[in-house]
Write the structure tokens for this entry.
Amino acid sequence: MINLPPAFIYIIGALLIPLVRIRRLQQALALLIPVLAMVTIMQMPQGTYWQMQFLDYDLILGRVDKLSKLFAYIFVIISFFSMIYAIHIKEIGQHVAAYLYVGSTLGVVFAGDLFSLFFFWEIMAASSVFLIWYNRTEASLKAGFRYALVHLFGGAILLGGIVMQVSTTGSTLFNPFDLSTLAAKFILFGFLINAAVPPLHAWLPDAYPEGTITGSVFMTAFTTKSAVYVLARSFAGTEILIWLGAIMALYGVFYAVIEKDIRRLLSYHIVSQVGYMVCAIGIGTEMALNGASAHAFCHILYKAVLFMGMGAVIQATGRRNILDLKGRYLYRKMPITLGLYMVGAFSISAVPLFNGFISKTIIVAAAGVSEMPLIEIMLHLASVGTFLSVGLKLPWGVWFGKPDGSEDEITDLKKIPLNMHLGMGLGALLCIITGIFPDILYKILPYKVDFHPYAPSHVVASLQLLVLTLAGFCLYTNKLMAGRKSISLDTDWFYRTFGRIILEFCLFPLNRFRDSVQSSFANWTAAMASLSKHPYALLEIGWYTVTGQKKTMAELLQRTYDEKDYRLPIGIGVCASLIFLFIYALVYMRVAS
Amino acid sequence: MNPTKLRLIMLGLILLLFLLGFAFPNPHPHFWWQKIPVFDIFFGFFGSILIIVLAKWIGHKWLLKDKDYYDHD
């Protein structure tokens, strides 16, 4: 074991990668870092350690219990698979950004105090934005800026909450909060932005489809699930989260139905799936929290596989819209990618023997046990929508689809590197293993598990739901696939429109005002400069004004001062002095007497 | 495989699940609908149609815009 917080293993590793000049060694180091972190985490005892003093506060970098370890395990596992998927990338900056991102997420997971939590929280945002910008398109540049702005705003709110919390309670410990305080409300708001809870979610489907093919795979795992972790840690049992989560689960599902961009569709299903977790955290029972943790674990795996699959399609074809892919029978050319994608699709759809089935069902059952009928129905309906979009619409549209005669042939298909298939394959394998042997996962959940996903009635009910969703899909395939290339408006409309209004206000009215202020100042300065060269002009201006003669200012000020024009006989000066002295003497005598 | 054969397989599968629903009812129902053995058959079918129709309608009426919606310079 290395006696170093896993966050630093990644961060130091990320900084070392560019220093190694041999490519094979670079790749080996990039793959060794998760292994080192995994060994370290496995050997980390439960407790609180790695404490240090900073100003008057204690920073705690190692608050280790079952919850933090579970999240750390899956973060490290997925970073390993994602790095395998991305290892062919020659641009080292991408690996550095990815590992700074992973490291800071682990920092959040093991943070025991609010300051170190905030510190790592901000590095997460700052490093992940590069995974978008590295895509080097205009769209990714803009989406990256919006992503950064939203997260900086969220970070500022979080910091505000933390400062209030520390100043009112005097404690920096990161423990459950009392939502009646303003500080806790601010902190919750900051967490909800990262958890992509509507209406604060639009950054996610805006940014993730614009990331690099490999960078987006990293992004699917860390930001939202670290937010799920901090919510589970500090806001378990908060009632509003139940409703927000259930709405979120359906919100993502509805948007996915109308989406045509393959990664944006999957992004909406991150929102939907995280909705299950947020809802479970709101329910807050031991069963529900187990469900949230288990679902985070499974979701990270299958969502990475799904993004890897769609990334492979984009890499091979250069196309990202269902309308550009359907009816081209891509399954003939990319059967392995299809097979591996389907493992992820069956997992997210909670098909028995795949891992979504063993985790999502805990949450739905927890809603039942807690006697929440509407929530149970909402989550149930979201399951239908998940299979509909990710399990049916997306693979049908991308790999199959009925041709309508307007299709062009995909000819220049690029080869998918072996490592990309390997990364997907490992993810898919783990989806199946945890699906078939749920106890592997149940053993490491925060609380004791008393749940049997493979009860016959349960399996039959799930199959009924799935098969009849398939029937509904078959009936409405044409309607689902119809449409033209378009974008869907979401809550980012508000800040994009408001931002544009601000920009236009700055560009036009405000800029005109600045212009007029500047030019009037410039005129005044010029006038003063001329006047200083010819101060008598002031008298002339007065004279012409009194006598009513019309002369323009420019005319007056254009004349330069000539001493001869104003030379007076010396007697006038002497006379004026005498008059002045005389008046002075009179006044003096009057005052003195 | 021809469409008729596929439809038959599908119908057979639904029938089988219908019967299995009665064979394995939910032993711990929390709500009245969980007591109905074939509830998920109806829920899956009508739920999927509801989602498609409603989402498409909202999308068509309100949310879907031209690709250059935000790009007016």
In short: Chain B has a mean pLDDT of 91.
